[in-house]
Amino acid sequence: RCETCSEEEAKYRCPRCMKYSCSLLCVKKHKLALSCNGVRDKTAFVSVNEFTDLNLLSDYRFLEDVGRTADAAARHPTVHSPTTKKLLYCLRNKARRCNIDLRTLPIGFTKRRENSTTFNCMEKKFYWHLKLVFPHCHAEYTLKGVPDDKTLADILKPYIDPVESDPVVCQRLKIYTVSPQSDVQILMKIENRKQNSVR
User: Fold this and answer.
1) pLDDT tens across 145-197, in order?
2) Domain ranges of the chain
3) What is the maximum alpha-carbon separation in the chain?
4) pTM attached to this predicted model
5) Which residues, in sequence order, are CB contacts of 165 under 8 Å at separation 6+?
6) Is residue 17 exposed (0-12), middle (13-18) or buried (19+ Cβ within 10 Å)?
């Protein structure tokens, strides 16, 4: 039976949520009711007992798609643009002079696209793009243009200081604002490590 109208015999099955439908009208209704896009989730977990040749073929095609996308990103004109290379080279050079090991991701990566770190030649100062993650509250905040001479205490004041922080943010990060500042640890993830070896 159709799982939308429960009247007619089902003819179709949604690749996304596996709901049965009898007609185009019911397909549209189910998509609207469940906010389903009807596109099969290629990364959905399949147990070993249910894994078939079709799943293997699907995984193989998914990996091929990923390879094509990565290749297309590598061939993008901006990768080979002299201006992009010059700015990047300049930024790395300035960082090296300040004893900073600056590493950049390839063009196609989201982190690379979002990063707004710059170097001000007049002030001879880096302006960093920071992402603050508060794991105990499942909260994340992105800061742009943070000068390199600003202390961590000053950066965190608008978030976890009981007096100076924004009331809404303060309420959300309550576990941090009520704790003594000596109990708050600031950790920075070490990059370029294996996935199961986070430090």
Assistant:
1) 999 899 988 998 888 888 888 888 888 888 888 888 888 889 998 888 887 88
2) 1-41, 116-190
3) 74
4) 0.54
5) 157, 158, 159, 173, 177
6) middle
